Structures are given as C-alpha cells and as structure tokens.
From TrEMBL:
Location of region: Disordered: 1-26
GO biological process: fatty acid beta-oxidation using acyl-CoA dehydrogenase; fatty-acyl-CoA biosynthetic process
The Acyl-CoA oxidase/dehydrogenase middle domain, residue ranges: 148-238
Aminoacyl-tRNA synthetase among keywords: no
Biased composition regions of type Low complexity, renumbered to the chain: 1-16
Family, as annotated: Belongs to the acyl-CoA dehydrogenase family.
Transmembrane segments: none
GO terms, molecular function: fatty-acyl-CoA binding; flavin adenine dinucleotide binding; glutaryl-CoA dehydrogenase activity
Protein name: Acyl-CoA dehydrogenase
Domain Acyl-CoA dehydrogenase/oxidase C-terminal: 251-397
Top-level taxonomic group: Bacteria
Keyword check for Endoplasmic reticulum: no
Domain Acyl-CoA dehydrogenase/oxidase N-terminal: 31-144
Length: 404
C-alpha cells in the first residue's frame, strides 16, 4: 500500500517561516563555512565601516586606509581566493559573499579589497615569477603593502590596446613612461602593476611606488566613490630592473584576465549595495506613516518592494551560480559579463526605487540609499561599461564582432 501524502496542515507546519530579507531561502545554498565567512566580514563592516562611512563619504576621504587594509588582511580578505603566499585560498562563492558584505557597507571598501586582491595580487600570482610572488604577495595578503593596477589611461579606457604608456629597453633595464587614470589605491600604494606597450607587445610591470620618476597625485572633487582613494599614475622615465616585468604573459590576455577576476567580485558586490538600499526602504516603509497608516500598506509601495526583492534575489542567485562555475573551473568571461551587466544595472534601479520610497529622506546621508546609488554610477562604468559588456555578449550570441 502506498504511503499517504502528508495532510495540508502537517505540510504547512513543516515549512520554515518566510524571511522578508531572504524570500527565496538562498541561505540554504550556503555551507556552514560560507556562512562563517559571510558573518565574519559582515561583523567587521558593521563595527569598522558603517558607524563612520557617512562622515567619510561627506568629507570625500578614507582615513586610516592602511590600518583598514591590515585589518582586512588579518580577516583573510585580501587575495582571499588565491592560494599560497599567505592567501586564504577561499572558494569563489566565499570571496563573492565577502564582496557582497563589504559593498553593503560601501563600494569604496569593496573596491579597496577588489583592486588589492583581484587585480594587483592576482596579476602577480597568475603571471609573475616566483621571486616576484615571494617578494610581494605575503605582505600584500597581510595588508602591510597596498597595491594598485594601472591599465586605464586618460584617453584610453574601453580600448586598452591603444594605450600610450611605453616601456623601452635600455641595456639590462626597462624605462617606463606614461600616465594612468582613475586608479584606485594609487596614492597609498607601495606597489603598482602597470601595463605598457613594448616592442614585444603589451607587458605588465611590477613597479615599487618609491621608484624615481613615479608619482600618484590623488583625484579629488568626485561625486561618487568618495570614500575611496582614486589617483592618477605618472611615470616619467621610471627605470626598472629586467626582472620587473611579469614573465608569464604578453598581450591583452594579461590585463583582461585580471579584469575578469575583478568583475566577478562586482557581480556579488553590487548586490550588497542593492541589499542595503532595499532593506533601508523596507524598514522605512513599515514605520513611515502617511494618510493614517504606514506607507508599506499602500499598493504602489508594496509593488515597488516586491519588484526590488525579485531583482535583488535573482541577482544573488545569478552570482551564486557564477561562483559555483568558477569553483568548478567552468566560468567563461562572457558569463562574467552577463553577471556584471545585469547585476550592476539592476542594483542602480533598486537604489533609485528605494530613494522614491524614502522620499526626501532618501537624499540624506542619514540613510545609505543615495550614497549607494552614486557609488554604483562608478561601478556601472569601471571594469567595463554597460556598452562593452553588451558587445561581449552580442559577439558571443552572434559570432560577429561589433567592437569596431
């Protein structure tokens, strides 16, 4: 005789309660170790960033960045998905969860970690010599040395193949000259990974920032990523030894591979900014009263909240899927473009909708919404603009190159 299905009342009592902050139950996808990583980073951000971030943002500075870097190093958050050399060797999903929690505090904090680990450290780890790895990576993983990554130039952003920065041989040395623009961590970095044209093609160079001829003036008067150090890099005939070049790569494959690693973190991080804005709007809607009741009781507000929740948790589910593919060694660059294009675009829309729920309060730094919205305007552009990721996907879908 076949077993009888459970009664409707028994089935209902077995269901977990609905969680407005995790409506799809995505927490079930995480391992205990995943949750431990997430919770550790969340507690650090709540303790060290959230109480002060509005003030830092308003002042347009990130004070104590070196101390913050050392604390992040002690958490294992710097180069956390890399193995060896003092790096944590965490999985891609765990690294993504860390990015989400950091950007839920502020995009500038996630950018600090992303540029350090996914760009500067990853370039040395993936393409450097053993001597370069031993010299730089342990101290960078500990946060003792901050790194930056010089690819974008004043006149060449989406087309890095046209860069003008040039390195020429002079006897046994290299002489590096040129300018890079919009470089996170630049003026506080102890080492810069700089990409330059050479007679042999585009090469990467590991440049100590105390080298004669190297300077990094800070870029100010920003209306986005204000709690982040952004700089120009100026190389005026910087003389480097022969072993400063990254030996394992020539051509754009090097910097673009680093960018793919960084873009993956943005897929997760952007959902952190979206989550913080959604939760601020949800809490506000339940307490702000108009026309005699909380505004969360009106249909239009509920429609906004429902749409925000759908896009937020679809984005987190997409990020988790891409993380699993990365852990399995099956994540393609086009799939990272898919995630970056969707999640940042949707995160901005969530922030803008949250702002409408908060009304005039939405523009106040008493709430995180406008800060996240303005930060995401930069995130939308860096590591590949919307248009570039659309063209990456367009080429993958059609087999036709529309970049030129």
């Amino acid at each position: 005789m076949s077993a009888q299905p459970p009664s409707k009342s028994a089935a209902s009592s077995a269901l977990p309660p609905f969680d407005p902050r995790d409506p799809l139950g995505l927490d079930d996808l995480l391992t205990d170790e995943d949750r431990a990583v997430r919770d550790t980073v969340r507690r650090w951000a709540a303790d060290r960033v959230l109480p002060q971030i509005a003030d830092w943002y308003e002042r347009g500075e990130l004070p104590g960045i070196r101390e913050l870097a050392r604390e992040l190093g002690s958490l294992g958050a710097l180069g956390m998905s890399l193995t060896g050399y003092g790096c944590a060797g965490a999985g891609a999903v765990q690294y993504g969860l860390a990015c989400l929690e950091l950007e839920a505090a502020d995009s500038g904090i996630r950018s600090l970690v992303s540029v350090q680990g996914s760009l500067a450290m990853y370039a040395i780890w993936r393409f450097g010599s053993e001597e370069q790895k031993q010299q730089w990576l342990p101290r960078m993983a500990a946060g003792e040395i901050i790194g930056c990554f010089g690819l974008t130039e004043p006149d060449h952003g989406s087309d890095p193949a046209a860069m003008r920065t040039y390195a020429k041989r002079d006897g046994g040395d290299w002489v590096l000259s040129g300018r890079k623009m919009w470089i996170t961590n630049g003026s506080v970095a102890g080492v810069a990974v700089v990409w330059a044209q050479t007679d042999d093609g585009i090469r990467g160079f590991v440049v100590p920032t105390d080298s004669p001829g190297f300077s990094a003036p800070e870029i100010t008067h920003k209306w986005s990523l204000r709690a982040s150090v952004t700089s120009e890099l100026v190389m005026d005939e910087v003389r480097l030894p022969a072993d400063a070049v990254l030996p394992e790569v020539t051509g754009l494959r090097g910097p673009l591979g680093c960018l793919s690693h960084a873009r993956y973190g943005i897929v997760w991080g952007s959902m952190g900014a979206a989550r913080a804005s959604f939760e601020a709007a949800l809490d506000y809607a339940k307490t702000r009263e108009q026309f005699g009741k909380p505004i969360g009781g009106f249909q239009l507000t509920q429609a906004k909240l429902a749409d925000m929740a759908v896009e937020l948790h679809k984005g987190i589910l997409l990020a988790h899927h891409l993380g699993q593919r990365m852990d399995a060694g099956r994540l393609r660059p086009e799939q990272i473009s898919f995630g970056k294009l969707n999640n940042v675009r949707e995160a901005i829309e969530i922030c803008r909708t949250a702002r409408t729920i908060l009304g005039a309060n939405g523009i106040s730094l008493e709430y995180p919404v406008m800060r996240h919205a303005t930060n995401l305007e930069s995130v939308l552009t860096y590591e590949g603009t919307v248009e570039m990721h659309q063209l990456v996907l367009g080429k993958a879908l059609t087999g036709l190159d529309a970049f030129r």
